[in-house]
What does this fold into?
Amino acid sequence: MKASCLNLSEQTQMQVESPVEKKCSNLKARPLLLLSVLLFMGYLGNILLSLLSLQYGVAVLYLDNVWEFVMLFGAAAGSILFVLLNESTDS
It folds into this structure.
């Protein structure tokens, strides 16, 4: 029977919770996600500061290439760990 042929009470009984709503409520390691997002934003900010310095000749302090790599590596590692910690074991 199609969903359009069902009456209102039968349609409400067939509705189930969205899996997205269920997963958002029980995320593990949220500080790890926050840290990785902040590190990535710092990485992008450093790139923009270096572009500002090179393009317009403004004397702005920005991080060296090694520290830029460390920030990007930390952001990538943090996001990968966050995904692995929140991976569902039931398939």
